[in-house]
Each structure stands twice: as C-alpha cells, then as structure tokens.
Amino acid sequence: MIAATLAKAMDAYPLVGGTDGEFGNAKDLGHILLELGACRWSGTLTPLCGYVKSPVPDQLSEFARGGNNWFECVFPADLERVHKNVASMSRGEPSLSFEYRMVNEKAGIVWVRHWWSKDSRSPAARLDGKIEGFVQIIDERKELEAECVRASELERHQIGQELHDDVCQILAGLACMLELFGREVKTAIPAMTPTVNELVSQLNGGMERTRTLAHCLVPLRLIALGLPAALAELAKQAHTCWGLTVKIVFSRNLFPHQPDQTLHLYRIAQEAISNAVKHGKATKIRLNFRRSGTGTILTIQDNGCGLSSTIAQKDGLGLNIMHYRAVEIGGDFSISSPPTGGTIVTVNYPNIVFPALK
User: Check: CATH 3.20.20.300 for 2-137?
Assistant: First the structure.
C-alpha cells in the first residue's frame, strides 16, 4: 500500500514545483512522504551525484544537499546494480522501483527503495543530465524479511536434526530387526526370503533418503561443506527423491564464496529445483556458474513446461524469498520462461561482501 501511494505521488506530482489536487502543495507532499519514511531525491548524470530534499528522514539527513554525494555512499556490493539501473533509466527505458543499501555514518546500513520520476526519463531530462525521484527507507520491512528467513533456517535446522537424531535411528533399528527376522525366515520359510530382502532394501533406501534430506536442512553443515559439495549433495537428493538429473557446472577461476553467499545460493537452487519439479514437471536441470567481470552469474535452467504467471503468483512467497536472498548478497534476480520451453532463474551477484556491516 505504501509503495502504491508513493508510485501514485511520483506519477501525479511534478517534483520541480506546482500543485496536485490530491496531494496538495510541495510542503504537504513533503510531510506525507516523511510520514512514510520517504523523501524526494534529485541529482545529475554528469557528474554522477545525488542528494535528498527536505524534509528528510533522520537516517538520510547526511545525504541532503551540502552533505555526502549519494552515489559515493551506496553499499559496495550494490553499487554495480545501482549504476545499471541509472544507465537504464537515463536511456529512457522503463524502470521499476529497486532496492539497495546505503552506508550511513551514524545509522550503519540503511535499506532504501528507489523510484525514478517520469521526468527523469524524458528527452529533455536526458539532454541536461538531470535525474530525480523518490527514496523510501525500508529497514523495518527488510528486518521483517530477514527475521522470516532466520526463522525458516531455524525450523529447517530443527527438522533436519530431528530427522537425523530420531527418525534415522528408528529406521536403522528397524533395519537391524528386519535383517534378523530375515535370517529366521530363510530357514523357516525359504519362499519368503526374496520378499524380506526387498523390504530390507526398501527400508535402507528410505533411511538413506531421510539422512540426505536431514543433511540438506542443516545450515551450518552446508556452509562447512562449501558451495560445490553442498550443491552436489542437493543434486543427489533431487535424483533420489524425484529421479531428476541435475548437472552442475562451475567455470574456472570463480571467486571464492563467502558463507552468506553459500547458504543463500544453495537455498535459491533448492527452491528453483523444487519449483521445476512441482510446477514445471522437469526431468533435467542445469546449474551453471560463470565469472562475469567482478562478479558471478548463476543460471538455473530446466526442461519443464515453464512457469506460468498464475503459478508465479500462487507461489509468490517462494519467489519473493529467492529474490530477497539474491538481494542480500548484492545480486540481481530474474526468472523467465523462454519460447523454447522450460524456466530460467538467473542470479547475477558480485564477489564483494562485507558481512560485518550487515
């Protein structure tokens, strides 16, 4: 609702002055924005600089005119993404709101959502290099998202631990009992021996699948394994559970992955594989990691029937969490269904991370 209000204000109200029937004069609009934790923003392309306009939320006061240049204080891992968005907007291309982090000397890291005004994309604006729009602080929402993810990881850990320490032990005990029973059956009822052996085989297979699933649910174990080994285990689990063929390709000279990146990328791959099976009926998936400039591009492509808009909306929570995880490591997230079929999930992320600043 807040996003819709800001977007409506952006489209209806000229930032350079004037009045609007719904939002009133500039002063009234400024106070409305302030209540929403937002303010106006303007800058230039050459040189690339920007400042927020009064009234300004306290967390952004150091970026008011006369203070720090906005673009010099963008969180390093998000800087490339911000520059791409600026370049896209300056070419007059449609630009949706996007989220990134600012480094605030007083408040630390501040999450913001940014909109460009339509005026910024006009030919006249591109000619004189002026850019403007709205910025909203979204720390509270980001903290809520982070808490949801933390709760999810804690729940996964607890389930994984329960499966490993309880269910697997029960299955192992049953397997031993069944093997002892099989020895007696072999003597007393020889004709039943093949059936008992099949039961033992099925039980051991179920125990192995349960153990693999338990391992894939424990975050600290995934981080300790490292990304290649963790994904290899995920591929094994997908094959065991669904008969899915998962191929993982790491190009040479990739940047080393930090623990945060390992966990977020693993969970993105896990969700993408699950969606490919449940919604796309895929039988083959390819995960490809390739180096691109100062970052890495991960593509997850399946041979399924594609992800329709209806399914995307239905499974919105999963897709939103994938997007959240990509942004958390400073990356861009996209999902598409090409004409050739299947679904492609893409995460373009930098190698620069600063866990201590999070």
Answer: no
